[in-house]
Amino acid sequence: MNEKNEDRFDITIKSNTKDLFAFMKLVPNRKKRIEKASNEPIKLDPMNQLARKLHPNRQYLIIDDIKEETKSTKTFKLIPDNNSETKELAYFRPGQYLSLKVEVNGVLITRPYSIASSPNDALNGFYELTIRKEEHGFLTHYLWDNWRVGTRVESSGPEGFFYYEPLRDLEQIVGIAGGSGITPFRSIAKAIIEGIIDAKLTLLYGSSEEDDIIYYNEFKELENKYPDKIKVIYILSCEEVNLEGCEQGFITAGIIEKHCDVKNSSFFICGPQIMYNFVENEMKKFNLPFKRVRREAFGEIKDALKIPGFPQDIAEKYYQIKVQIGDLTKEIPALSTESILVALERAKLAPPSKCRSGECGFCRTLLVSGDIFISPISDWRRAADKKFNYFHSCASYPISDLEIKIPRHL
Amino acid sequence: MSNESINKEVSETYDCVVVGAGNGGLIAAAQVAMKGAKVLLLEQHNLPGGFASSFVRGRFEFETSLHELYDYGPLSNKGGIRVLFEDRLNLESEFIRVPEAYRLILTDPGEDINIVLPFGIEEYLDTIEKEVPGSRESVKKFFDLAKEIDDATTYIGKTKGNPEQEVLLKEHSNFLKTAGYSVDDIQDSLNMPDKARKILNAYWVYLGLPTSRVNFTIFASMVYGYILKGAYIPKNRSHEYTTALDKKIREFGGKIEYNTKVERIIVENGKVVGIETSKGKKIKTNYVISNASPTLVYNKLIYPKSEVPEIAYKEINARRHGVSTFVVYMGLNATAEELGLEDYSYFINKSMDTDELYSLLNELKAPDVQATICLNKAIPDCSPPGTCIMSITTAFLPGVWDNVKPEEYVNLKNRIAEDLINKFEKATGIKVKDHIEEIEIATPETLARFTGTFNGVVYGYEPDSWDSFIPRLMAMNDEKHIEGLEFCGGFGRRCHGYSSSLKDGETAGLLTLQSMIKKGVLK
């Protein structure tokens, strides 16, 4: 040791004794400081409180009003359930959604719905969700039969990334909406006129017929009042079109170019899967950079067989899944063409989920054994999750018997 | 609550419950499970890692908080973390060496520093000498002192914390003599030229305390660790090694539950007897290792409150909570080369007056202090061809964000983010704003949300000399108030930071195992 230290210098900061003393005093000084400190517990944690306000795990709501928008759509006004821990509603970014948790015939499922009201409305104590009754919709039929003023509804906090981001997006927003995909744009339009976001909105809104147009009068009023900020073009796919100034057909590249400054706009697309396929194909012609086109996650894929690469030969086959959820282990059946999330819900296991589009990762699940098909158009897994066999159950399908492990819902 | 009642409601019994799956908790759980104890690891989030994680936006997967890991080291000269990961745990994770130490840019008029520093002590000394002729000797002394600290801590570790006074005085006197001082105190006595000090102290931001206050021992160890062995980052973001740890814990027979928060640590007559979870479950255990801070545990988790000794509150109130961070994550639609991003790590400050820089962290606006990373400079294919990932990090002192209202929050964070980007562009001449394809901004609120850390604090307790790792280790036994309860992580014995938290998890695991063996719980 001594040889090694030959050219070692000996430091003196104040004096040899004082320097060693400084070391010797470290712990006594520490004790002195501690002895002098307050013995009061810390009661406030403002950042954790802000986190709970902005991102509550749950919001307990109650239906305050129901408005018929069209023959198949209703707007539900939701307010905090006074008999719950929810005293105020979480603020949000226009374009975000709520994941509702609803029990339908004993089966607990989640569904994401874009918030249609303004963020200011949340401060004033309400959210609005506009929901279209789907012909084969598992949940919407239940809602139509059971949701009344006074019904209690459990929701997540605001979620999702489909919002205007001034550091990324251009001031001119072009919204492309199909059917009930217009709901986030109502929130965005309100936020624009209320000065919450500094942008302009041109909305290309596709519907199948005039009667299906949601918020027609509301948007007309906004357009009249704020002509420099809000503009709506209606595109109807039915044969006969009587509505003044509207386009007939689909949202083609021609229609987009006719009404928008393509190169100087940020596009936001929200609608059914079929519309995405069509519009995205049309928009290829513009050769826009990725950053100029944002799309809302479209929810669960309706027809798994149409997912690119889906193994057609196993259609309608049933497999067994051995599920470990929390302390419970259960064998459940699963249909190849339904997501593993749906199989878990059908088995009444109340698994965690939010976006149902592969994006949020809240349904992250460990594949212990077996083979799955993962929708390549809904694959937002982390690299390490791929490496260690984790998958998002909302965007994955069984193609053999499986063993999986998931945490319980929050 | 009496033992009887807990026995009635209890659904399970574990040898040890680990609270939180952050860096410390994961290692502690692995350590204890590896030796055959029945371990339950509980985590409130749905992922392992705490701050050590990743998230996906569009085509990009972002590293949440790690800039660079120290004490990993090359194969030929493994650091403690590499030994832990590769040799002890055999983890399936891959690390990549960061190309250079850092670029330091000072932006105040009159400052003339814009310099890239390499790894390797000799190369580092050469670079500073070239920039500041005549500084080599004093900077070398700094590294000599750092080496002596390293040797001394190795020696203390070998004696299991019971070093011989005589050996310390004879062989490691410089370690003893510097331990009570700040970085400024030591550098003053080394007669180090001012400009060399500025360059050498660029890493101050990783400890978040001005050089007038930060303890020399911890600062010197950190700088030495980085420059001697280089810095490393996980190839697939930190989520890779934390997920590998999750797998390892399960292989060792440990159990992990996510989405499960520990609401109470139940204590009886000064001893841990169990915990209660957010799922309403009571679990019996005599050992809890908490990755949650003493601040959280003593103020919120110990049940009943009467079991918290007064001195525990005093300890917390005597210590000062460290900074929280603010990060702008950007996926850019151009390559680093196209943009002109030459370096992995940029430290950009107005000056190196760290007292002033620290005071800037106390205002609710973008401070002239940032540590910016271009991940592709270390991992070229970490994002799709034609793109790159960049993140700008700054910090805020506790309390700065306290009065922010939900409806002001987004505009505020966007304004600060934009200022930080502007400051980066101005300092480097590199334009990135038009290339933002994805952007996400994390604030103290975000950190509080995802990890549950008290008030969003990331940097544990501030390492002034009296609360640096040496006094923390020396006072460890005196400050243990509840039998069966150990702490680990960024608020732990070794102060904050990835490497410190990981090693502290190992220590907490070992201490718990020791006690289990002593009590006959484990052979």
Question: Helix- and strand-based class of chain B?
Answer: alpha/beta
Major β-sheet annotation of chain A? 6 strands, antiparallel
Q: Biggest interface and its residues per chain?
A: A-B, 72 and 92 residues
**CATH homologous group name of the largest domain in chain A:** Nucleotide-binding domain of ferredoxin-NADP reductase (FNR) module
CATH level-1 class of the largest domain in chain B: Alpha Beta
Major sheet attributes of chain B: 7 strands, mixed
Based on secondary structure, the structural category of chain A is alpha/beta
Q: Can you tell me the number of structural domains of chain B? A: 3
Global outline of chain A: globular
Unreliable residue runs of chain A: none
What's the total helix number of chain B?
A: 20
CATH topology of the largest domain in chain B: FAD/NAD(P)-binding domain
**Global mean pLDDT of chain B:** 96
**Could you name the CATH class of the largest domain in chain A?**
Alpha Beta
- How many strands appear in the DSSP assignment of chain B? 21
Beta content of chain B: 15-25%
Taken together, the total number of domains of chain A comes to 3
| CATH architecture level-2 label of the largest domain in chain B | 3-Layer(bba) Sandwich
The ordered H/E elements of chain A are: HHHEEEEHEHEEHEHEEHEHEEEHEEHEEE
Structure description:
The complex is a heterodimer of chains A (410) and B (523). With 410 residues, chain A is an alpha/beta fold. Chain A is 23% helix and 29% strand. Chain A contains eleven helices and 19 strands. The radius of gyration of chain A is 27 Å and the shape is globular. Chain B has three domains: 3-52 and 239-320 and 461-518, 3-Layer(bba) Sandwich (FAD/NAD(P)-binding domain); 120-229, no CATH class; 323-397 and 402-442, no CATH class. Chain B contains 20 helices and 21 strands. Chain B has a seven-stranded mixed beta sheet. In chain B, strands 1-13-12-11-15 form a five-stranded mixed beta sheet. The chains are: A alpha/beta (410), B alpha/beta (523). The interface between A and B is large, with 72 and 92 residues.
